[in-house]
Amino acid sequence: MKVYYSDQYTIPLPDGHRFPISKYKMLRDYLLEHQIINHSQLFESPLASDEVLQLAHTPEYVAGMRDGSVSIDVIKRVGFPWSRGLYDRSCATVGGALLSMLSALKDGIAGNLAGGTHHAHADRGEGYCVFNDIAVGTRYLQKEKLARRIAIIDLDVHQGNGNSSILYHDEGVFIFSMHGEKNYPFIKVPSHLDIALPNETEDAFFLEELERGLVEVQKFVPDYVFYQAGVDPLKEDKLGKLNLSFQGLMDRDELVLSYAKRAGIPISLALGGGYAQPIDLSVLAHANTYRVAKKVFGV
Questions:
Q1: What CATH topology corresponds to 2-297?
Q2: Span 127-154, mean pLDDT?
Q3: Distance CA 105, CA 86 (A)
Q4: Cα separation of 179 and 192, whole Å?
Q5: Where are the alpha helices (DSSP H) in the chain?
Q6: pLDDT averaged over the chain?
Q7: Host H or E run for residue 22
Q8: How many CB atoms lie within 10 A of CB 211?
Q9: Which residue(s) pair with 152 in the sheet?
Q10: The model scores a pTM over 0.90
């Protein structure tokens, strides 16, 4: 399994900013230290080109993020101060997603230690998301005719409004989002299948609803799957409002990954959210997704 990282690109954030930028490097180190993956599986993410970004984003928005001319309103929605580092890191996030997608087509599974930036829309970013890596990847698969039927399984605690606003009307795409009902974004953009969970949902009900959702994904008969495996449903997550345990998240991952493995569908992993206090708990939950991937795919 090839895994791509982009934590070499940094975002200058003010003191006290609540986005856990440290978790990306912490996760890469944890995966290596605990021998979940080894150095030969790790690859530096390249920067996605403007041409590639424009598969899912307007030229004006891409240019504005590149040169800093994007409106202050958009920057406020994104939640990060503008910098060239923000643009470069966002491009690397998409570059890693594209290479993990191409690797999954060859090997069955691959991962990106970033991404899942599902709140980015065609003409703007929001919610710590600048460019939408899954939307760009989906459009790339379509353009290059590498897949005909593409499913997005989005299990981040926040609904993937950007995925839906960009891709809902694309032929051959099925978007499944399971998320907290009373959580950001407070105005949802409908997916093809949305399962909204009440606050304090625990493992058993979550897994029951996921099985119901996966039945619908199977009916769609995808030949490629993007898996947004955010770990913010974890009980300890400060933004999540759900009560999943570490084991519940691992059972979630096993359901999704075992489905892809059994059906012979290539699947790539996007990191998604994780905002626990301390952040080490989110790092552990993200690492567990790779533990499950190693178990299910034998990689």
A1: Arginase; Chain A (3.40.800)
A2: 98
A3: 29
A4: 14
A5: 23-33, 50-53, 59-67, 72-78, 84-107, 133-143, 161-167, 203-220, 246-263, 280-297
A6: 97
A7: none
A8: 11
A9: 175, 226
A10: yes
Whether residue 10 has pLDDT greater than 90: no
Burial class (CB in 10 A: 0-12, 13-18, 19+), 90: buried
N residues, the chain: 299
For 180: left if phi > 0, alpha if psi spans -120 to 50, otherwise beta; the answer is beta
Separation CA 234–CA 283 (nearest Å): 11
Whether residue 278 has a cis bond before it, omega within 30° of 0:
yes
Which pLDDT tens digit goes with each residue over 176-200?
Answer: 999 999 999 989 999 999 999 999 9
Above 90 in pLDDT, residue 14? Answer: no
| Sequence-ordered list of residues with C-beta below 8 angstroms from that of 208, at least 6 positions apart, any chain | none
Q: Average pLDDT, stretch 9-38?
A: 93
Whether a cis peptide bond, with omega within 30° of 0, leads into 185 is yes
Report the C-alpha gap between 284 and 299 in whole angstroms.
19
Q: What is the pLDDT of residues 72-109, one digit of tens each?
A: 999 999 999 999 999 999 999 999 999 999 999 999 99
Q: Report how many helices (DSSP H) and strands (DSSP E) the chain contains, helices first.
A: 10, 8
Q: Which residues are paired to 110 by β-bridges?
A: 2, 268
Tokens of 130: 């600048």
CA-based Rg of the chain, rounded to a whole angstrom? 17
Domain parsing of the chain, residue ranges: 2-297
